[in-house]
Amino acid sequence: ANISTSFSGTLATSTTATMGALLNEKAGSGMAKGVGIQVLKDGSPLQFNKKYTVGRLNNQEIRYITIPLHARFYQYGPTTSTGEVESHMIFNLTYD
């Protein structure tokens, strides 16, 4: 059976699901403006709502799977300001 993952989150302003950029959800004073978080898989932007096959299991097999992800700040607004950045991403694991 295949093991797959998919990821979702609130996209940063003026971005698409293929850019892997999450909106800064931090509110109030002290929040950064125009900056979010970009998630990378294998050095490329993670595509949200895309199914990634990460492994295969045979009947009653136990296996460890590593999914290397990295995150970095991402400017999505025309201007930025310093402050805190907080983003959330949902990780789905499917076995079929």
UniProtKB/TrEMBL annotation:
Residues of the Fimbrial-type adhesion domain: 7-96
GO biological process, one term: cell adhesion
Example of a GO cellular component annotation carried by this entry: pilus
Pfam families (alphabetical): Fimbrial
Record InterPro entries: Adhesion_dom_fimbrial (IPR000259), Adhesion_dom_fimbrial_sf (IPR036937), Adhesion_dom_sf (IPR008966)
UniProt cross-references to Gene3D superfamilies, sorted A to Z: Fimbrial-type adhesion domain (2.60.40.1090)
Superkingdom of the source species: Bacteria
Family annotation (SUPFAM superfamilies): Bacterial adhesins (SSF49401)
Name listed for the protein in its UniProt record: Fimbrial protein
Organism: Klebsiella variicola
